[in-house]
User: Which sequence fits this backbone?
């Protein structure tokens, strides 16, 4: 599978060291590492920035939401999709929107197979079936009561989703991308084609996370160690079920 590391990664010297030969997930909200990634990464995928916008709405206490103008994102992807390193773009979505609103955004999408739609875990399984029938890749996004990846509730919902999107042998019917799902405990169980997280960008600067007898001496060293650990976890070929503790925790 492809491990996409969310950007930006700071400082720039660390980004240059750790992204070389790897895969970068570039957000339209903050694309400062785009030029570097195009030069040194094996591939790039692009995010529409909805997660950051959703987090801002939560911090602001919700309230009315103005319909987003996605034309700048469409233009951005129109330029990027011609690059040899470009893999796919996350099609605009609204995490706290309804299925009709998100379906309308799919209908509006101007770049065809260059994009991948998002199925939010709180949405209906019927919508997931429709997306799998119409698209070659589907992104899975944690949301609603299932917003905490790896929690018991999240695993139960993923089991329901994967029962729909896999054949009787557990092999996915389409390529699956896990949004914010590079946790090794998740990757080793779910048959992803790709997944992303900002784990690398968030943790290389947290000193207490690197306590021990032989911590890496530089931020660049931290980044390489963490990236290697993340990428050591590989997805299985088929879905064989969630961790057994998922259900024992609920019974207890």
Assistant:
């Amino acid at each position: 599978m492809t491990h996409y590391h969310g950007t930006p990664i700071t400082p720039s010297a660390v980004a240059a060291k750790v992204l070389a030969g790897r895969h970068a997930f570039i957000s339209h909200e903050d694309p400062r590492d785009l030029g570097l990634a195009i030069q040194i990464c094996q591939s790039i995928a692009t995010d529409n920035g909805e997660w950051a916008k959703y987090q801002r709405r939560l911090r602001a206490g919700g309230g009315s939401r103005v319909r987003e103008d996605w034309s700048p994102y469409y233009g951005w992807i129109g330029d990027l999709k011609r690059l040899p390193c470009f893999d796919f773009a996350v099609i605009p979505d609204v995490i706290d929107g309804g299925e009709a609103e998100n379906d309308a955004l799919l209908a509006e999408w101007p770049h065809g197979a260059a994009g991948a739609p998002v199925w939010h875990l709180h949405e209906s399984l019927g919508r997931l079936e429709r997306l799998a029938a119409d698209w070659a890749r589907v992104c899975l996004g944690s949301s609603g009561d299932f917003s905490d990846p790896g929690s018991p509730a999240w695993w139960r919902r993923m089991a329901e989703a994967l029962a729909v999107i896999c054949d009787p042998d557990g092999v996915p019917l389409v390529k699956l991308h896990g949004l914010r799902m590079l946790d090794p405990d998740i990757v080793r169980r779910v048959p992803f084609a790709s997944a992303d997280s900002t784990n690398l960008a968030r943790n290389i600067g947290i000193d207490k996370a690197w306590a021990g007898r032989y911590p890496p001496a530089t931020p660049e060293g931290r980044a390489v160690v963490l990236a290697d650990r993340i990428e050591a976890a590989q997805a299985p070929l088929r879905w064989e079920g969630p961790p057994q503790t998922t259900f024992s925790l609920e019974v207890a």
